[in-house]
Write a structure and sequence with these properties.
single chain; four-stranded antiparallel β-sheet; three-stranded antiparallel β-sheet; PH-domain like; globular; alpha+beta
Amino acid sequence: MKSHYLLIPVLLLSACATRIHYQAAAVNSPQAIVERVLYEQPDKKRPESVNVTERYVEFGSGSNAVTTPGFNSVTTTAIRKGTRLYYRSIAETRLYQKNRWFVVEPRSSGSRTLAQIYVEDEQNAKRLIDALATLKERAPEGE
């Protein structure tokens, strides 16, 4: 019975992620890096579309069709499902290792997680952090 009490903390700790401290550096072609890494996520996390602009990256799982009955007709509107990550909203980007995956977490100034991006190897995770930092630096001023 006592061995069961020892097993519980081990199981809880195995589910935790280990933070890896990393300082971002500038890279060439940051848009290509962001697009590639987002498309290389595991099947359950992989977006159907990725759009990298000068102000944000948008990625998600397609769109929903919403129908609105009108007076004489029915209007169908496509609403995109996904995440839009504005570079200027990123205050810091954290890197964690969780089991065999590396998780990149861009965070707001209030420490809110803006996205979780799963990457298979540490080098690509660090390149993604570099690319996001480069895009933030290059983002135009203003809204």
